[in-house]
Structure formats: C-alpha cells, structure tokens
Design a protein that fits this description.
Helix content: 10-25%
Largest sheet: 11 strands, mixed
CATH architecture of the largest domain: 3-Layer(aba) Sandwich
Number of domains: 3
Shape: globular
Number of helices: 9
CATH superfamily of the largest domain: Class I glutamine amidotransferase (GATase) domain
Structural class: mainly beta
Strand content: 25-35%
Radius of gyration: 28 Å
Number of strands: 43
CATH topology of the largest domain: Rossmann fold
C-alpha cells in the first residue's frame, strides 16, 4: 500500500544518548525536495487558550534538503522459506492443519504457496479448500467454518494431485469433509515456500510482493514421500523468535515476516496446560493476519548524529515540503554514564508504543471541525490504516492485536495530536499531554534530563540511580519486569519518585532482543481490556512470562507507588480536597503557598486535575502503612465506574450501576522509604493538564514545585 500522507517519517529508535545516532526514514509524495532540520519541543498543545505549540530550531549537521520519494507499506504477515533443495519429483504428500478466522465467499486466502514451476497455491474460503497449479484449479466444495480446525492434504500420485479437507472436530449440522482432484497438472517444484499468502504475479517496483493473505492459524506444514519426512516446519520450535525451524533432513529453515502471533493454541491443545512453555507441542500454531505490520522497512534518508554536547531533552526531526510538515519526536539523553541534572523525566514510551495509531472511534464532524479550527496535527488513524494497528484494536479477523512496533510512523505520537473533543480543555493524551509537564519544567526553570522506558529496559536501575528525583509522565501504564524492578530498586535505594499520572504500572508486557522494536501484550484475565486473550494464551511468546495485569502477577501498583487504578469515566476531570494529613506539621513544606481546601478544579485536560482514569490507595493491595493520603478527589461524574478487577459480581448487585462509589476517587499520597527515599503520587491521568493553567501560576503548579524542589535537594 502506498503511503497516503504526503510527508511523514519515523526513526529506528525513540531515543539516543548524546554522541549516539538515530536513522530517519521518510516518505514524500512531492516532486520537490523536502527540507529537514532539528527542533527542540517545549510544548505541544494546539488549544488557542492553552500553553501553545512551542518548538525552537536547533542547528544540526543533517539540516538540508533531500529528494522526495514515495516509500511503500507492505502489511500482512507470512512465513518464508527458501526450499530449492526440496525435490518434488514423483509422488509426494503435503499436509497442513488450518484454523480460518475470517472466511469470505469466493475470496480465497492462501494457506501455502510454492513459487517453483507453474506455481502452486493452497487456499481456503467459505466454500472450502481449493488448489491452483498454474491456471488449473480444483475446489473441494465442502463448507468451512471459522475458528474450526481442518486437516488439508495434497497427494501427488500418478500424475494427478488429490486435495482432501478433513474437519478435526465435530460440528453438528455440517460435514466439512470433501476432496477434489487436479488431473495432469503442470509440473510442481518447491522453489520458495510461502505460508499464509500467495505470490503476486509479476509485481511492479514498489508493489506488494504477496497477495491473498490468510487470516487464521496454521500448524505443522509437512512434505512426506513414502512415509518419510522431506520437510516438517514445526512452529512449536523457536516460539520467542521469528525463526521457522524445519525438523526434516534438509534443514530448510525460514523466517516469519511482519510478526504473526506465536504461542497460539493448536489443534492438539486440550486444556491440560495453560503455559505454552510446558507443552509447546500444544502451541504449534501461528496466527497470521492480513493487517499485521512489524516494520515498514523504509530506506534511511539521513541520520541524526547526536552531538556529544547537545543538552538532554525532547527534540523533533522536522520535515517540511510546500504546505506539509511532520515533526518526528526523539528523546536525547546525556552522554553514557552521565547525568546533567538532578531531575529526570521518565517518558512512558512503552505506553506510547502500545497505543500507537489507536483509532478511538471518535473521529466525527465535531472532531474534524476542532482539528481545523485549532490547526492541530492533521492526520488521524481513522483516515490512515496503512501504518498498522494499536494493541487496543482488533485485527480484521476479530482477534486482538498483541504486538506493536516502533518501526513505522506513529501518528498519535506527535505534538499537537488531539485524542478527544474536550469541551473543558485540550483533549490531549500520552506524548502531547506529557509535553504539559515539559512546558511546566521550562516555565519553572527546572533543568531535567529526558529518559525513556526503552532506555530503562536497556540500562536498568543504574539509569535512575544518577538522579535525586525522577518524574513520570501522565500514563506509565505498561511495564516490563525489568522496568518495574528498576523503579522499585531505585525507590528502595533512596530514590525519590514523583508519579504524575493515573492508571500506571498496570499491564505487564514483554520485549525481546529477538524482536527488536516490538512490544507484546497479552490481555489475560481481569482488567479493563480492549479485547481478551483466548484461554490458554495468557503467557507471552517473547519472554514466556504470564501476561495481563501486574496485580495478577502479585505486584499491584500500590506496592510501587502507593496508589493503583480504581475507576474510569469519560475524559472529564474533577478536583481534590485536602485531607487531615495534609495539615501535619512535617508536611508544611508540601503545601506552602497553597490556599484553600479544594485543589485543582481547573485544567486543560478535562477541566480538572483528578479525572478520566484515577488511582486510589489500598493497604490490602500494598499501599505502605506509612503512606499518608494528603488529598482525595470528589464529585466525579455519574459516568465514572470502578474497574472490573474490583468487582466479583455485576455492579448492579451493589445497588449502584457504576459500582461502589467510595472506590471512585483519586488519592494523592506521600510516603518515605529506606535510605532517604520517598514517593509522591497524584493518581490521575488529567493531573498534568492543570500545570499550565493561568500561566503556570496555580495551586497544582505550586504543589508540584514544592515536591520537586524538596525531592531534588540533597537531603529531603
């Protein structure tokens, strides 16, 4: 698919240290060259009443013009094996098990194709399996059902090819078995073996090399001759990787393309094991999707060699041509082993990646009107599906999206991108909303180093240990075991953490060196889920760990930051009320200069500092006994409800449609740890939207300044 956006780019990494390098990849539909330069991003709110869009040019070695070129996007996962050594002379048998998830009338989806000879394609549709060799075609004519397993077999004997379709489970009311024969077909040779797609006939430059992608699961494709195995591609092998292992004598190994989902239940799964690593033979299936996209694979246009003396911060690779512009964000860290400030902002790049290109299904006339009025970021996933899906989306076959890659343009990760038509504010989420914090730090004159989740995964606790104080973004929802451990270790060793968001530290996710740039999500039991993993598929393929909520892994967010996700509503905010602990004499520093008992009844995110997704303290879930609740939110709108993991029966059984109202609140907590450490948590996604209010002169701004100054001092 061609890129429909006139000018857009992506980088091979979200961040680099000073002295490092980032590759930049660009697609442009213009005939004229585009211009590239570097900007530092201080604010990304397009709301005319807000802090504005502020980017300042920075000299760079790559600043220049570059020739425009259209770079294609080829979606759809498949498997590829070079099999020239596989001889199909004489008699042979091909067998494969398939589970279609999306079937259409007379629209074949290729399960397996061979490029040698006249070409062979084994396909399925609602009408059953079909076989094509050259121009000769035969159809089984027995109906197939979605999400049912079938054994397909091609037997080459006596100069004919016989195709059989056999259901592997009983479905009352339909048979599903049948066969068909191709007599005197053209010669068949293996050449290249392609799983889950067919070869495009005579593709032109830039065109997709594959077609007729299969939506569903494939297991155990095998060639035999006289009972002897010629090739057996056992997908239960090397599950955490993209490798395809041939257990036959020729060792015809291959690779998966575009990250199909592995560790999937196969036809042998019987419920006796819920963890794929215990019985991998039960998880020998790979789920392929026509809309999988792992890596756009664009050529590099230029590189950003980060100067060793470039200050740490949030930057952008700005691309411009005629009236089009794209600013690709990058985070610059200090040189290796160094810190250039007492304060660091840990940008939640795993969460940015998980939500990448999420279509919230709210793109309507009102959204388009606001986008035009504010001249906000002009592109939206609803209009541009070519760059792949978010893990909050469903594949076209109805299965949930488990992987997200950074090797593609991410429209939602742009300054000025609005997520909601916010009648009381700006409607920003994720990266643009975290720029409210960046704008505040700049306005307060507080120096900070930028670090990211991806850096924390690579460097561990040592990355945080260089800083007296670490601030989170607005929504650090997704954490790997290594990032969770690093944060916990930092706090335990005397670090001071300011959690400035809501619904943080909620989902456990997986990454692996075997899948660079990819993050995996399994929506296991419980939690506010966009989709639900199938039973038996709760363990990640990439790291073998149990997916789902950190709470289900024995680490509720309260254990880390004192509060955890409790309730959610629409993108609206309320306020906090000070609690008795806020008047304790030893906390006078926290509320110095703050008047009134009500705090944060204003803001550019939903109109209030406590809103959308809110967290509460709970000793039973791990809130430390020395934690003090200094503020709690009130009067959340009627559409707010408690999270599913808080309920054992439907909410109506409690007498309230949204669940127990006392659980619908945001708690602001403070506690100290060993070795001089401390944690301050606000428990609300909309909190940072209040920082810029009234030119940064407000209660929320003052409160956080008090906390950051205290935490970044040598002795809190």
């Amino acid at each position: 698919m061609a890129c429909a956006i006139p000018l857009i780019g992506y980088t091979d990494a979200f961040s680099a240290r000073a002295g490092g390098r980032i590759a930049v990849k660009v697609s442009s539909t213009f005939s004229a060259p585009y211009r590239a330069d570097l900007v530092r991003i201080f604010s990304g709110d397009p709301n005319p009443a807000g802090p504005g869009m502020r980017m300042e040019p920075v000299p760079s070695a790559f600043e220049s013009t570059y020739p425009s070129r259209l770079q294609p996007v080829h979606a759809g996962s498949c498997g590829l094996v070079q099999a020239d050594r596989l001889s199909l002379d004489g008699d042979w048998t091909l067998s494969v098990n398939v589970q279609p998830w999306r079937l259409a009338d007379r629209e074949p989806q290729a399960v397996l194709a061979l490029s040698g000879g006249a070409g062979l394609a084994l396909s399925v549709s609602k009408d059953g399996a079909s076989l094509r060799v050259g121009d000769a075609v035969c159809h089984v004519g027995a109906p197939m059902l979605e999400r049912r397993w079938y054994a397909l077999r091609i037997v080459a004997s006596g100069g004919a090819l016989r195709l059989t379709q056999t259901p592997l489970q009983t479905d009352w009311g339909t048979d599903g078995a049948g066969e068909a024969t191709l007599r005197a077909p053209p010669p068949v040779r293996a050449g290249t073996v392609l799983f889950a797609a067919d070869f495009t006939v005579a593709p032109v430059p830039g065109a997709h090399p594959y077609r007729d992608h299969f939506d569903g699961r494939i297991e155990h494709p095998t060639f035999t001759c006289d009972g002897a195995v010629l090739a057996w591609w056992d997908f239960s092998q090397d599950i955490p990787t993209a490798r395809i292992t041939d257990r036959g004598p020729l060792g015809l190994h291959g690779a998966m393309v575009n990250q199909p989902t592995r560790a999937m239940r196969g036809s042998a799964w019987d419920g006796s094991s819920m963890r794929w690593s215990d019985k991998p033979e039960h998880y020998a299936a790979v789920h392929f999707h026509a809309d999988d996209l792992n890596d756009c694979g664009w050529d590099t246009d230029f590189v950003f060699d980060v100067p060793p003396d470039l200050p740490s911060g949030v930057y952008g690779i700005r691309l411009r041509c005629e009236d089009a512009e794209d600013v690709v964000p990058v985070f610059v860290l200090p040189p290796p082993g160094a810190a250039t400030a007492k304060v660091a902002v840990l940008f939640p790049t795993y969460t940015y990646q998980v939500y990448a290109n999420y279509d919230r299904a709210n793109f309507d006339a009102a959204f388009a009107a606001r986008r035009a009025e504010w001249r906000s970021y002009p592109h939206h996933p609803a209009e541009n599906k070519q760059f792949g899906l978010s893990t909050y989306d469903w594949h076209g076959d109805g299965s949930g999206v488990a992987y997200s890659s950074l090797m593609r343009p991410i429209m939602t990760m742009r300054a000025g991108y609005i997520a909601y038509v916010d009648l009381r504010g700006s409607g920003l989420r994720h990266f643009p909303s975290d720029l409210h914090l960046v704008a505040w730090l700049d306005a307060m004159g507080i120096s900070f180093d930028a670090i990211t989740d991806h850096d924390l995964e690579r460097e561990g606790e040592a990355l945080l240990g260089r800083y007296a104080c670490v601030l989170t973004g607005t929504h650090p929802e997704y954490q790997t075991p290594r990032t969770w451990d690093a944060l916990h270790g930092y706090i335990s060793e005397g670090g001071r953490l300011v959690y400035l968001g809501g619904n943080g530290f909620y989902w456990r996710v997986a990454v692996s060196d075997a899948a660079p740039g990819v993050i995996e999500v399994r929506r296991a039991e419980g939690g506010t889920r966009a989709w639900a993993s199938e039973p038996g598929e709760y363990y990640n393929a990439l790291d073998r760990g149990y997916g789902g909520l950190w709470r289900r892994n024995g680490r509720p967010p309260q254990m880390l930051v004192g509060v955890g996700f409790s309730a959610q509503g629409r993108f609206e905010g309320s306020y906090y009320r000070r609690q008795p602990a806020s008047h304790d004499a030893d906390l006078a520093w926290m509320f110095a200069g703050i008047e009134g008992e009500v705090i944060g009844d204003f803001g550019y995110s939903g109109g209030g500092a406590a809103g959308f997704e809110v967290d509460r303290a709970d000793p039973l879930l791990g809130t430390p006994p020395n934690a003090r609740i200094v503020c709690s939110s009130e009067t959340h709108q009627a559409h707010f409800g408690v999270t599913p993991e808080e309920l054992l029966t439907p909410p109506a059984n409690f007498g309230e449609p949204a669940g127990p109202r006392h659980l619908i609140r945001s708690d602001m907590v403070y506690f100290e740890t060993a070795k001089g450490g401390a944690v301050f948590s606000v428990g609300s996604i909309t909190f940072c939207g209040s920082l810029p209010w009234n030119g940064f002169d407000n209660q929320i701004s003052r409160l956080i300044r008090n906390v950051v100054e205290r935490f970044s001092a040598s002795h809190p």
